[in-house]
Amino acid sequence: MSSGNHRRNPVFAIRNLHEISLADVWLIDQKMNVVTMAGHGIPPRPPRFEDVPQFSEDKKLPPGADEVLKKAFAGQASVTEVFNPVLEIKSLTAATPVYERESQNVVWVLLLHSPIVGLREAILQSVRILAGSAACAFLLALLAAALLSRSFTRPIEKMNGVAKELAKGNYSIKTGVADKNELGELAATLDALAVQLKDASEESARLENMRRDFIANVSHELRTPVTVIRGSLEALVDGVVSSPNDVAEYQDQMLKETIHLQRLVNDLLELSRLQTVGFKIESEPFDVKEAAAEAARAIQKTAAAKNVLIKVERTDGQKIIQGDGGRVRQMFMTILDNAVKFSPEGGEVVMRIGDSEIAVIDGGSGISAEDLPHVFERFKKESSARNKEGSGLGLAIAREIAARHNFHLSAQSPVAQDPKWPGSKFTCKLQ
Questions:
Q1: Burial level of 102, CB count in 10 A (0-12/13-18/19+)?
Q2: CA-wise closest residue to 335 among 368, 310, 306, 307
Q3: How far apart are CA 363 and CA 421, in angstroms?
Q4: Cα distance between residue 203 and residue 144, in whole Å
């Protein structure tokens, strides 16, 4: 304590110290006079230090105070335990020096005295308070742990149930967890997995149906020419047909069915190769506009036999791309051949060759709304006399060739409101 504190009134400080420590407090000067004091049963002192008379006889210090006072005035804080014969209890007496700021001399000694019984009661009270606080904290911790555990286990239970349902093949189930944490991210991933599995399941079912349809169609397409060839051969071998004209007719029929069978097998092999990921096609620069024009020139003979006019509308310049020019020409030949096949006698087919797309338009009977979405599928063909020799694989092959060159092949029918074009329009959008 500084000299400035030496000149100030210490009454209120002593009272506060007593209230905090619950002990009797004395402030003693170098002459062993009690400057001020506060404690149990001690009347309040006057508020002004100047009005407090110096005394030592009327207010005795606690037993054992002399020893600790001597040490305190020597600059050493100490504590002693003594037995009070009057109260028959043990007490603790502590003393600490108070220094002057400038000289650092001991000017006062602060003396505290408290029965050990009171300390023990205070300690026990503190222990009880601490134990109660610990018990409350433990209960609160248990409640918080239960709530947190529930918040963690509930999403996990939901995700576990979803995983079991997914294992059973129920891909429409959802977790319903929307937490903004790691568990929420895991639940979102599980929901996304369910969607992907559902899509994959539907795609697998679709491919399985396509496989069955393909096998059925192949069986049907192969059965017809084989049956005709076998019947004709049996008739010739058994001698049912013997006249030269009939024999020649049967032989001609078998030749046609054999050619059709060969075309079907070749188309199947061609489509299978194009759909194989590892199958490589030629890759070299070529003019796709010129490949389309060559296909139009090559189909002229077939069109002339049916009195169908092939008209080419071509923009200037070239369109050089990297790919297989022969197969692209084959693709346009297939589209043009279909256009001629379904055009009426004396009809017209227009090929419009532009820089970004090439279109083939015919004035035929068009494609029905039911068949239009399936026009590029295998064995999807019109059952009519005009298409009796078709294999139903031409447009499927054309689509695969387009896909290999990053083209987009589409069909539209009818073309427009103009009655001149009631047929179909096949458009190939270039890359």
A1: exposed
A2: 310
A3: 5
A4: 48
Query: Angle between the 394-404 and 244-275 helix axes, to the nearest 10 degrees?
Result: 30
**3 state DSSP class of 348:** strand
Spatial distance between the Cα atoms of 97 and 88, rounded to a whole number of angstroms: 29
Q: Check residues 276 and 161 and name the one with the higher pLDDT.
A: 161
Does residue 46 register a pLDDT over 50?
Answer: no
Pull the structure tokens for residue 148.
Answer: 């947190």
With H, G, I as helix, E, B as strand and everything else as coil, classify residue 78. strand
Residue 311: its pLDDT value, please?
92
**pLDDT for residue 264 is more than 70:** yes
- CB-based burial, 238-269: b 16+ in 10 Å, e otherwise: eeebeeeeeeeebeeebeebeebbebbeebbe
C-beta of residue 292 within 8 angstroms of C-beta of residue 427: no
Q: How confident is the model at residue 358 (pLDDT cuts 50, 70, 90)?
A: very high
Residue 36, amino acid: T
Task: Give tens-digit pLDDT for 55-87.
Answer: 334 456 777 778 888 888 888 888 887 776 655
Show Cβ contacts of residue 250 under 8 Å, excluding neighbours closer than 6 positions: 232, 235, 236, 241
> Global pTM?
0.47
Name residue 357's beta-bridge partners: 429
Coil, helix or strand for 138? Answer: helix
Q: How many residues does the chain have?
A: 431
Whether the per-residue pLDDT at 241 is higher than 90: the answer is: no
Query: Which pair of tokens denotes residue 405?
Result: 């060159």
Q: What is the DSSP letter of 55?
A: B
Contact (CB, 8 A) for 59 and 34: yes
Angle at 21 between CA 20 and CA 25, to 5 degrees: 110
What are the backbone dihedrals phi and psi of residue 265, each rounded to the nearest 5 degrees, phi first? -65, -45
Kind and range of the H or E run holding 29: strand 24-29
Q: What 3 state SS string does 222-291 have?
A: HHHHHHHHHHHHHHHHCCCCCCHHHHHHHHHHHHHHHHHHHHHHHHHHHHHHHHCCCCCCCCEEEEHHHH
Spatial neighbors of 405 by CB under 8 A, at least 6 apart, are: 321, 323, 324, 328, 431
Averaged pLDDT for residues 323-337 = 89
Chain center to CA of 376: 35
Report the candidate in 329, 333, 331, 337 with the shortest Cα–Cα distance to residue 291: 329
DSSP 64: T
